[in-house]
Design goal:
Length: 405
């Protein structure tokens, strides 16, 4: 190796050492991923709740379920008790929903803490849900309370984190009992509920009952450990019969409970992670400096013609002929989010107030215009079907937004 390469390698190693030193001195960033996993101690994990429930019950009275509900209930014909599901979204398919409903009708309890649960169960119970947005209120921090006078608190419980709130916009009061309600915080000094909406209900089904709570955040570490919020979670779970077995679902979770990849161990530890990165960088450098003069000539291959535009027009025409406006809108939204990621280098996985402010700043659009566009996109994604006018309005707003770039 020549002196030139030795000096270059020394400079690169010094730069890597400096980066590692600076990285090791920084604090770990808070992971706001909504995993709802029992093993996660991050804010949106359920480690605390799982620990409290498992310790308050005997080993035979608390059971872990890692199988899909359809397989578990099919294999365990004698199982009974309360089946507890907690996740951001739990979209049961039709077969799974019917299996759960049949199991409940035999005298069991189904408890679901999720923002969405699929149409089959909702249609069967004659319920309808929606996501709540208040364009006049920039605050999206929810206040929650229970309806029962014995559990109701004059000062509602408070989630000090912006989130999307779900509620029941259609409730059959003849068969459904409203147990809880929510509202969005108006300002920091006023913690009272204005125009509360139902987000927790109970309904009898056969010989059993079904409880649905549309704000899964109240079961997470962040909510339970804040001040005395645990009392709200405790009161919500008090509707579960303590004498029955509790079945904790580990299948419908955003976060994995079992990591099959050995890289997880390396990437979870900061020092092992950087050692792994250095190994990869060293390998790349070796290939660049050692393999450059040894590689064979690469033949020129004529690239295939780009048929992307033709293909896109064909697919769009098929959707338009079928009047599938929702699919076209989703394609437009995904294309717009990809534009945001590639143009402004923004993460579109977490669309919140901070994201809207950054997008407005980088795109030279006003904050109000940007907020209206993002809220309109979020609203359309939650809808089951769209009209042609709504699709055209979406395209109009996106094009107007891009013109400012």
């Amino acid at each position: 190796m020549s002196n030139k390469y030795k000096v270059l390698a020394g400079v690169l190693l010094l730069a890597l050492a400096l980066v590692i030193y600076m990285e090791s001195g920084e604090k770990d960033e808070v992971n706001w991923f909504q995993s709802y996993s029992k093993t996660d101690k991050i804010p949106y994990g359920t480690y605390v709740l799982h620990d409290l429930l498992s310790n308050s019950r005997t080993q035979d009275n608390f059971k872990e379920v890692r199988q899909p509900p359809y397989e578990f209930l099919d294999d365990s014909t004698t199982v009974s008790g309360t089946y507890l599901f907690i996740n951001q979204y739990i979209l049961f398919d039709e077969a799974e929903s019917k299996k759960l409903l049949s199991w409940v009708s035999k005298g069991n309890t189904l408890f679901i803490g999720s923002r969405g649960i699929g149409e089959t169960i909702l249609d069967t119970l004659n319920l309808s849900t929606d996501l709540f947005y208040d364009l006049d209120n920039l605050q999206r921090k929810p206040l929650v309370n229970l309806v029962n006078p014995a559990l109701h608190r004059e000062r509602p419980f408070y989630l000090d984190k912006e989130t999307t709130a779900g509620y029941f916009d259609q409730v059959d009061t003849l068969t459904t009992v409203a147990l809880g309600e929510f509202s969005l915080m108006v300002d920091k000094d006023t913690l009272h509920m204005e125009e509360p909406r139902v987000n927790f209900v109970k309904q009898s089904f056969g010989d059993g009952e079904i409880l649905i709570h549309l704000m899964p955040e109240v079961f997470t570490n962040y909510f339970v450990l804040r001040e005395n919020n645990y009392k709200y979670t405790q009161n919500v779970l008090s509707y579960i019969d303590q004498e029955k077995d509790l079945l904790w679902d580990n299948h419908h979770k955003n976060g994995k409970t079992v990591y099959s990849s050995p890289l997880y161990i390396f990437l979870r530890n900061r020092y092992l992670k950087w050692a792994y990165y250095i190994l990869l960088i060293g390998t790349v450098l070796w290939v660049i400096f050692e393999g450059r003069r040894k590689q064979r000539a690469i033949p020129i291959v004529t690239p295939l013609p780009n048929q992307t535009l033709t293909f896109t027009k064909t697919i769009a025409g098929m959707y338009f002929d079928k009047k599938d406006h929702k699919s076209i809108a989703l394609h437009q939204i995904n294309h717009f989010l990809e534009f945001v990621r590639s143009t402004y280098n923004l993460d579109t996985n977490f669309i919140n107030d901070e994201f809207i402010k950054k997008l407005a700043l980088k795109s030279d659009n006003t904050l109000e215009e940007t907020r209206l566009l993002i809220n309109y996109i979020v609203s359309l994604r939650s809808r089951q079907a769209l009209t042609q006018e709504e699709l055209l309005e979406l395209n109009k707003r996106i094009e107007a937004f891009k013109k400012q770039n």
